[in-house]
Design brief:
With 248 residues, this protein is an alpha+beta fold. The chain has 3 domains: 72 residues, no CATH class; 127 residues, Spermadhesin, CUB domain (Jelly Rolls); 32 residues. The protein has 1 helix and 12 strands; from the N terminus they run E-E-E-E-E-E-E-E-E-E-E-E-H. The radius of gyration is 30 Å and the shape is elongated. Keywords: Disulfide bond, Membrane, Transmembrane, Transmembrane helix.
């Protein structure tokens, strides 16, 4: 049952409310009502609670309730890369396995879990760089995406260990296209225990920074110069012989 004046808030109406458990406390994630399909949700840890509230409705109500599917996962709903079990949430992408592909936030395209930190590691071959382009970006927060603004964020680094000197990204504005400094790149996604978003989706590509055509031209040029040097040396030698013959 859903009165007309409660469509957007799900207050005073039949609704399903989702709760997660963080540090022993039950936190409300969102409430769903109406006929629109809700976003997929994921727990922060092992527990997730759905609370269905049905109010007294008119006798002519045609509401039929809900039906849902559930699944227990250990990969945070991230289908790409190889899971790195040395991290609570870590995934590796190797150029030797695939030179391009996609990666996304946990539970994409649903609501990402709270109080979570995920790392995406990109390992290129020597002479390669990593290029990343975001197709979708919805990270709860306000620039500069610090703890003071209670923001979730995405952070980038070309260092093996994460550091906090690189500007963070949050909000709904997609970061500019990214090029790594070398063959290694790291993306860190951090969420707090307050608010939620639907996360991000991005494409990655490993590219060689050495142009084989440039190498070929350079080698060809070197061969040409070497040939010219030999011809010049031969001419000088012939002229020297003529000079010596003239003296005699």
């Amino acid at each position: 049952y859903q009165p007309d004046d409660s469509y957007h808030t799900c207050e005073a109406t039949d609704a399903v409310t989702v709760f997660v458990s963080i540090n022993g406390q039950r936190d409300r994630v969102d409430s769903f009502c109406g006929s629109d399909m809700p976003n997929q949700v994921m727990s922060t840890g092992r527990n997730l609670t759905l609370e269905f509230r049905s109010l007294q409705s008119p006798g002519n109500s045609t509401a039929r309730g809900f039906r849902a599917a559930y699944q227990f996962v250990t990969d945070f709903g991230i289908a790409s890369g190889k899971q790195d079990t040395s991290f609570a949430c870590g995934f590796a992408y190797n150029s030797s396995d695939s030179t391009n592909g996609s990666f996304a936030s946990p539970n994409w395209p649903g609501i990402y879990p709270r109080d979570t930190e995920c790392h995406y590691f990109f390992y290129g071959l020597p002479g390669e760089k990593v290029f990343i382009e975001f197709a979708y970006f919805d990270i709860e927060g306000l620039p500069p995406c610090t703890a003071e603004t209670a923001s979730d964020y995405v952070e980038f680094s070309s260092a093996r260990r994460a550091h906090h000197k690189i500007p963070r990204h949050c909000g709904m504005q997609k970061p500019p296209n990214i090029e790594s400094e070398g063959e290694f790149f790291r993306v860190t996604f951090r969420t707090n225990d307050r608010f939620d978003g639907t996360g991000f989706s991005a494409q990655y590509q490993f590219r060689s920074v050495i142009d084989p055509y440039t190498i070929k031209r350079f080698r060809g040029g070197a061969t040409y110069l070497q040939g010219c040097t030999q011809i010049i040396a031969l001419i000088i030698f012939v002229e020297f012989l003529r000079f010596v013959g003239g003296i005699r």
